[in-house]
Design a protein that fits this description.
The structure holds 2 protein chains of 2 kinds.
Chain A: H1 2-24, H2 28-50, H3 57-73
Chain B: H1 9-21, H2 24-36, H3 40-64, H4 70-78, H5 80-112, H6 119-135, H7 138-163, H8 181-195, H9 214-247, H10 251-258, E1 260-261, E2 265-266, H11 270-298, H12 308-321, H13 326-360, H14 368-378
Antiparallel strand pairs in B: 1-2
Helix pairs in contact in B: 1-7, 1-9, 1-11, 2-3, 2-8, 2-9, 3-8, 3-9, 3-13, 4-5, 4-13, 5-6, 5-11, 5-12, 5-13, 6-11, 6-12, 7-11, 8-13
The chains are: A mainly alpha, B mainly alpha.
Chain lengths: ~80, ~375
């Protein structure tokens, strides 16, 4: 539970520090990407600490490449 | 802050050198010895040669489309939509590499020196330093390399000299007893592990100052770093023999434990651990920098440093989630990473090279139909 609070607090601090600069520059595209990335980072970190199963990104690469890799190794 | 800062060629050479050594110093000897046994040193030499040829390919690509990073080359050569997809795929490659380097680093530290510390804590501390470094820009990273380069070289020389009394040259015999195919198999590992990853430097190459030949610096870094890996592999074989090298994941760390000069100089494996700290940090910071840069260039964002903290969080989380255990990592490195690296280290630049030749060199030929169709996209 503490980990979740720490993650949310860290996200809020990063948001508070970075966004004024973006808004001052009127870079709305940057703001959208920044918010989306920050949110997904926080969600992933919370998933990691609470141990919620999420699909493993390396597994998709593995699914495509492992059969080729094994045959190249001759195994 | 991150754009516009330049680095000079000798810093670039040190960067390539430290990048080559990062994570490979410890992982490579056992990887190559597992296949090639006591001929592992031959396969490292073949791997260095392949690295030089690959860097030649990358340099050819950057000469054809000068002054552009590889993501900008994607857009310039393949057009807006296809270029965006290619750039995003390249970004994904740098992301996976960052994850793997991060995880290798954490696994080694938890396995060897910090058995009680949770791996996420180690990742967090490392990432904070990396984010801070990337935030100050590329010239800052380059100056870090300036400081670490002499330290790494000095420690490596000390390490190699202290091992001299332990060498057993019989360990290398018989040479090529099992034929060529185990050697080819092992050099395939070397080619995919450090050599193919040199493509990341196509993100940095345009920022290297002209003047003292930067292509030469690139190649020198590759060869010098490769030679260090060659010496480490050779030392592992000469001191411990092929069997023991292959069975220890962190062979060169085990090697350093053997060093014993009299009764007063022993247990100095921290030397190799410091080399590992420093070089892995350099590799991680370069991977993280190229990841952030390729992401912000694919989406055409002006201020890439905004993305450092969010991407730091993603890397921290994925590096823990994506790799359940060391066995997964080893099997991923052996089967999937080799082919994945081949796709982006070789197929990707070759496709870009041919596309660029078709796009930009058509003017030279005297086919009027071709030149009219190509001059719209070349601008």
């Amino acid at each position: 539970m503490w980990a979740v609070i720490v993650v949310i607090a860290a996200g809020a601090i990063i948001f508070a520090i970075e966004t004024p600069v973006i808004i001052k520059n009127r870079a709305w595209g940057e703001l959208a990407v920044f918010c989306a990335m920050l949110l997904s980072g926080m969600v992933l970190l919370i998933c990691m600490f609470v141990e919620i199963e999420i699909p493993n990104p390396l597994d998709s690469i593995r699914m495509i490449y492992e059969p080729i890799g094994k045959s190249l190794r001759g195994e | 802050m991150m754009t516009g800062d330049q680095i000079n060629a000798s810093q670039f050479k040190k960067m390539v050198f430290l990048f080559t050594m990062g994570t490979s110093t410890i992982l490579l000897p056992s990887t190559v010895a597992a296949d090639a046994k006591n001929d592992a040193w031959v396969s490292v030499l073949i791997g260095i040669l392949a690295g030089v040829i690959l860097v030649g390919l990358y340099l050819a690509l950057s000469h054809l489309v000068p002054g552009k990073t590889i993501v900008e080359i994607c857009f310039a050569v393949l057009g807006k939509w296809l270029g965006f997809i290619a750039a995003l795929l390249f970004f994904l490659f740098t992301f996976v590499l960052t994850i793997l380097v991060m995880r290798n680093l954490g696994e080694f530290l938890t396995a060897s020196m910090f058995p009680e510390t949770p791996i996420s804590a180690i990742h967090l501390v490392y990432l904070l330093v990396v984010i801070m470094g990337v935030r100050y820009g590329l010239s800052n990273i380059a100056r870090t390399m300036d400081i670490f380069y002499p330290l790494t070289v000095l420690l490596f020389i000390v390490f190699a000299l202290l091992l001299l009394p332990e060498l057993h040259f019989n360990n290398l015999l018989p040479v090529m007893a099992n034929g060529v195919s185990p050697i080819a198999n092992a050099s395939y590992s070397y080619i995919s592990f450090p050599s193919m990853e040199y493509i990341l430097f196509l993100m940095i190459l345009p920022k290297v100052e002209q003047g003292w030949d930067r292509s030469k610096a690139y190649l020198q870094g590759v060869v010098l770093g490769g030679l260090v890996l060659f010496v480490i592999t050779l030392l592992c074989l000469l001191v411990m023999g092929a069997e023991m090298t292959a069975s220890n994941i962190y062979a060169s760390f085990e090697l350093a434990k053997i060093i014993k000069i009299g009764q007063f100089l022993q247990r100095i494996e921290v030397i190799i651990a410091v080399i590992w700290f420093v070089t892995s940090f350099c590799k991680l910071i370069i991977c993280f920098y190229t990841m952030i840069e390729s992401f912000s260039q694919s989406f055409n964002l002006k201020q890439s440093r905004l993305l450092l903290w969010p991407w730091g969080m993603v890397v921290l989380a994925i590096s823990i989630i994506a790799v359940p255990d060391m066995g997964y990592l080893l099997s991923f490195d052996r089967y999937s990473w080799t082919v994945y690296a081949f796709t982006f280290g070789f197929v990707f630049p070759v496709v870009l090279l041919f596309a660029a030749i078709i796009r930009f060199k058509r003017f030279d030929k005297t086919t009027p139909a071709a030149s009219t169709s190509s001059d719209t996209g070349a601008a």
